[in-house]
Amino acid sequence: MAYDLAKLSARADILDILALYTHIIDRRMWHRMGDCFHDDASFRFGAINGSWQQFVAAARGVIDPLRMSQHKLGQTLFAIDGDLAMTETYMVAYHRVAADAPADAVFPGDGTERDIVIAGRYIDRFERRGGVWKIASRTGLTDWRQDAPSMDAGLYGLPADWRGGIGEADPAHAVCRLRDSLGGV
Predict the structure, then answer these.
(1) What pLDDT sits at residue 143?
(2) Global pTM?
(3) 3-state percent breakdown (helix, strand, coil) of the chain, nearest 5
(4) Please, what is the average pLDDT of the chain?
(5) What is the edge-to-edge ordering of all strands in the sheet holding 84-97?
(6) Mean pLDDT across 32-52
(7) Which domain holds residue 173?
(8) What is the DSSP letter of 36?
(9) How much is the average pLDDT of 47-69?
(10) Which of 83, 154, 94 minimizes the C-alpha distance to 118?
């Protein structure tokens, strides 16, 4: 497959959006999700089948009570045609469910601290509108899931500044501020 400069640029832009999406979720910076999705984008993952805004509302109820989460991206398969791109991106998402977390459709909330790993794929349709690539539709698929009692190996006994945080408390927030000041790059 031959790549021209336009396709390489599109790939880089799309990978940046995929990485930003995981950062937004793990740092609970929900107000930034519009940087990833076109306003009219659709989102289907599990019981959610609607707009990306509906996904955010539902995800906040599931993710916000967690002690932490970490979404890791794997390989991405691309098909790019002008202002349209289709991608399949593998992901593995780790979730530390607090003992007092409420029960919901995703996590048990059974009074014990749990480590839940969900692996799957994002099937995305990206569109470049006004020169900007964003997700126009997303379908999330779950391929496997693991649920075990939490084993933090002393993580929460370490000094707070040795661990990742949520929101502006995390040192990566400085990366976001610089990224914004540079116009998103």
Answers:
(1) 97
(2) 0.89
(3) 30, 40, 30
(4) 90
(5) 48-51, 37-45, 132-149, 114-129, 84-97, 68-81
(6) 95
(7) 5-181
(8) T
(9) 91
(10) 94
Burial of residue 127 (number of CB atoms within 10 Å: 0-12, 13-18, 19+): middle
Handedness of CA 166, 170, 172, 174 (dihedral sign): positive
Q: Is pLDDT above 80 for 1?
A: no
Residue whose structure tokens are 């609970």: 28
Tell me the two tokens of residue 35.
């940087």
Tokens of 105: 């459709």
Q: Which helix (H) or strand (E) holds 62?
A: helix 52-63
Give me the number of domains the chain comprises: 1
pLDDT bin (cut points 50, 70, 90) of residue 6 is very high
- What are the CA-CA distances from residue 132 to residues 9, 62, 85, 136, 179 (Å)? 11, 30, 12, 12, 16
Tokens encoding 142 = 């779950």
Read off the CATH number of the domain in which 77 is found: 3.10.450.50
